[in-house]
Amino acid sequence: MGNRKIAVLIDSENTPHSKLNLIIEELSSFGQIIVKRAYGDFSAEQLKNWKQPLNELAIQAKQQFAYTSGKNSTDSLMIIDAMDLLYSQRFDAFALISSDSDFTSLATRLRESEIHVIGVGKAMTPTSFKNACDDFVAIENLNADVDLEEVQSSTTQDAERELWRLMHQAWQNYRDESGWAKLGEIGKYLKRLKPDFDPRNYGLKKLSDFFDKYPTRYRIRNTKRSGMEFQFITKASKQK
């Protein structure tokens, strides 16, 4: 995952400038960021505070004046740029920073070209855009001092129940004859079904914390093979 060459495209009108540094830090874990561009009418009052973070993070500002009131010409410029970058064949991942469902078609088009798409937006971003991405990161989770208990308290019981259903389904698909399934495969399966899946949504730092938190449901074990460490899970009733 860390070897990808990434183009980062930011919809400034739908992104909080105060989170830019944390967004860039998060995206750096996916690979090497080659291009960083932010799109918007930076002469507008609502984007007046963008200059400093753009300069500090060496993000190129792509100015787009609004031609007509009520029309978003910024989206069009960002989409055109994305296609130009795609055809350059220099990148194997794109990060689309927006909470706007208008970029759903762009994300879908990039994936059709076998490009890995990372979406970053607010938790309330429309599901259509989230599911069009390979990975989706909620901006609310990008807090250097995030209160994990507070995040967990905001998680609905229905969402957690649905997650356990998917985990059980994943475990059934990937378990071996002895009932153990590799945790890495479980995580990949969850991301394929729910690109916005993130343990931080549930007040946890990583997927394995979920099983440590609920030992009566599943057991977890660490195993070393060829010098590498792997984690496996099984239903608690099957622990031997």
Low-confidence stretches: 146-151
**Biggest beta-sheet profile:** 6 strands, parallel
| Coarse morphology | elongated
- With strands numbered from the N-terminus, the spatial order across the biggest sheet is 3-2-1-4-5-6
What portion of residues belong to β-strands?
Answer: 15-25%
Number of strands: 9
Q: What is the number of domains? A: 2
Assigned CATH architecture of the largest domain: 3-Layer(aba) Sandwich
Question: Percent helix among the residues?
Answer: 25-40%
Distance between the termini: 34 Å
Structural class based on helices, strands and sheet pairing: alpha/beta
- Average pLDDT taken over every residue: 85
CATH class of the largest domain equals: Alpha Beta
CATH topology of the largest domain: Rossmann fold
Q: Please, how many helices?
A: 9
State Rg.
Answer: 20 Å
Give helix and strand order, one letter per element, not per position.
EHEHEHEHEHEHHEHHEE
CATH superfamily of the largest domain: 5'-nuclease
Give the topology, please:
Elements: E1 4-11, H1 20-28, E2 31-40, H2 51-56, E3 60-63, H3 73-87, E4 93-97, H4 104-112, E5 116-121, H5 127-132, E6 135-138, H6 148-153, H7 157-174, E7 181-182, H8 183-193, H9 207-213, E8 218-225, E9 228-235
Parallel strand pairs: 1-2, 1-4, 2-3, 4-5, 5-6
Antiparallel strand pairs: 7-9, 8-9
Helix pairs in contact: 7-8
3D architecture notes:
With 240 residues, the protein is α/β, with parallel strands linked by helices. Helix content is 36%, strand content 23%. The chain has helices spanning 20-28, 51-56, 73-87, 104-112, 127-132, 148-153, 157-174, 183-193, 207-213; strands at residues 4-11, 31-40, 60-63, 93-97, 116-121, 135-138, 181-182, 218-225, 228-235. The strands form 2 sheets. Strands 3-2-1-4-5-6 form a 6-stranded parallel β-sheet, sandwiched between helices. Helix 1 (20-28) links the parallel strand 1 and strand 2. Helix 7 crosses helix 8. The chain starts with a strand and ends in a 5-residue tail after the last strand.
